[in-house]
Write a structure and sequence with these properties.
By secondary structure, this protein is an alpha+beta fold. The chain has three helices and four strands. It starts with 9 loop residues before the first strand and ends in a 7-residue tail after the last helix. The structure holds FE2/S2 (inorganic) cluster.
Length: about 100
């Protein structure tokens, strides 16, 4: 197995497990993917779906990498801010907080 740091890119893992889906995670996930595509972020920011992160009561949840920050209670209105942050991290101009 090889390991290497994430360079020049960031990943957003949106939990699309059952409980998060009941609280709007699928709409959040599709909105974020659509927005990333419209912004031309391919190769720099990737929005991925994830299964349950075992923090269902706080969902919808999103984990950003690098950094591994978990964002809880994420709403569709938060999508722009998350993508902005992920884009800055990918450009080396910010950190996941
Ligand atoms: S379903 Fe999202 S954390 Fe469990």
């Amino acid at each position: 197995m090889d390991r290497k740091p994430l360079q020049d890119r960031s990943l957003l893992f949106v939990c699309t497990g059952d409980t998060c889906r009941e609280n709007g995670a699928w709409g959040l996930y599709t909105k974020m993917r659509s927005m990333a595509k419209k912004r031309g972020l391919k190769g720099r920011v990737r929005v991925c779906s994830s299964r349950c992160m075992d923090t269902c009561e706080e969902g919808p949840n999103v984990v950003m990498a690098p950094g591994g920050t978990m964002c809880t209670g994420v709403a569709r209105k938060d999508a722009i801010a998350l993508l902005d942050e992920a884009e800055k991290v990918a450009a080396g101009k910010g950190e996941c907080v």
